[in-house]
Every structure is written in structure tokens, then in C-alpha cells.
Design brief:
The protein has 8 helices and no strands. It is an all-alpha fold. It is globular.
Length: 219
């Protein structure tokens, strides 16, 4: 059996309604857990910082939330036109672009922070393995479903504005996710690594957009 046939069968399974519902449930639960993980930082921000800082605090759970919303769009997509080729809207495009860009960024970022801490002397516990697998899954799943998105260049621009603003808030206003103490002396390097990940994630979204344009031209 050719690799092409295996790929198409694999994607058909991945986009089947039972699998989509399973992914929806897993991502919804992960999103709730993610916001709970940020509970202490959100409380501190609420008490000691301007209220408008709050949306910039939880990074990974917000990324997961938007991919969960993307899954809802896929579940209700017009199947006569194929997943991702159904009704397009500005809101849907923004949700999909936000989920893609932020999930790639923070999926990689979290894993990099965990294992950088380990390289500098941190002890790895079971929660670190859980976070590693879940964040790698975040990045992988959005890439697998990227071919079924419907966003436009305007959506990417809006998300880019948000994601760079989020980086500025994290490292200039000091609301970055809580890090291991061994990483804090390297905060400046982490800042530039984070900005580089933002740029890489946006570049991936642009590549997907070009792929989608080529795909639609053949439909």
C-alpha cells in the first residue's frame, strides 16, 4: 500500500466525527486544567495589576481554547464541500488562525522551558512529563488539522498583532508564565526565543494559507 493511500486513510480517520468529538473532549478538559494551572498567577494579576492585563496571562490554555473552538467548526462543517471548505467567516478565520499560531508557539515554548530547566539542574517529575506530552500534542494536532482551516491573511495579521503584544506584556510588564528559578537569570534570552517562536508560528500560518489557496483552486 502506497504512502499516499495510507496518509489519506489516516486523515480520513482523524477527521471522522468520533475522533473529532474525542479531540474536542480532550482539548476542552485540557483547557479547563490549563486555566486552573494559571489560577495563582491570575489571582495575583487581578489583585496587583490593571485588570486589562488578565487576558495576557494564560497562554497555553487560551491557545487550547481556540483550537477547541476550531474543532467545533469542523464538527459542524458542510460535509458536502469537505472539511475546511465549507462556510467561511471572519470570526471562523480568526479563531482558526489564533488556534494554529498560538498552539504551535506555546506547545514548543512550554516543552523548551521544561527541558531547559532540567538541563540546568531541575528535577523532572511526572507533571513535567504530562505537560511535555500535552504541549507536544497541542503543536502536532493543529499542524495535522491545518489543511482544513479557512482563515485569510487578515486573520493572520490580527493574530500577529495580538501575539507580539502578548510577548511585550510578558517580558516588558513582567506577566510571563511562572518559570523555574534556574531559568530566571536567562530571562532576556527566553524573551528573544519567545519572539522567535512567534515569528516562526506566523510563518507556518502563512505557509498553510498558500497551501490552502492552491488547494481551493483545484476544487
Amino acid at each position: 500500500m502506497s504512502q499516499s493511500i495510507l496518509w489519506h486513510r489516516g486523515m480520513a480517520l482523524l477527521t471522522s466525527r468520533p475522533v473529532l468529538w474525542l479531540l474536542f473532549a480532550v482539548n476542552a478538559l485540557g483547557t479547563v486544567y490549563g486555566y486552573y494551572w494559571y489560577k495563582g498567577q491570575l489571582e495575583d494579576t487581578f489583585l496587583f495589576e490593571p485588570l486589562w492585563y488578565l487576558p495576557f496571562v494564560p497562554d497555553s490554555p487560551t491557545a487550547s481554547l481556540f483550537f477547541t473552538l476550531t474543532l467545533i467548526y469542523l464538527l459542524v462543517a458542510d460535509r458536502n464541500k469537505g472539511l475546511g471548505l465549507g462556510k467561511r467567516s471572519v470570526l471562523r478565520g480568526f479563531v482558526e488562525a489564533f488556534g494554529l499560531i498560538t498552539s504551535v508557539k506555546y506547545g514548543i515554548w512550554a516543552v523548551a522551558m521544561i527541558w531547559s530547566g532540567y538541563a540546568m539542574g531541575d528535577t523532572i517529575v511526572w507533571q513535567d512529563w504530562m505537560l511535555t506530552l500535552s504541549h507536544l500534542g497541542m503543536a502536532l494536532e493543529v499542524l495535522l488539522f491545518a489543511a482544513y482551516t479557512t482563515y485569510s491573511i487578515s486573520s493572520i495579521v490580527l493574530v500577529a498583532i495580538w501575539i507580539y503584544a502578548n510577548d511585550w506584556m510578558d517580558y516588558e510588564q513582567g506577566i510571563f508564565p511562572r518559570l523555574s528559578e534556574v531559568l530566571l537569570p536567562h530571562l532576556h534570552s527566553i524573551q528573544w526565543f519567545t519572539i522567535a517562536l512567534s515569528t516562526l508560528s506566523i510563518a507556518i500560518a502563512l505557509f498553510v494559507l498558500q497551501f490552502q489557496k492552491h488547494r481551493r483552486s483545484r476544487v
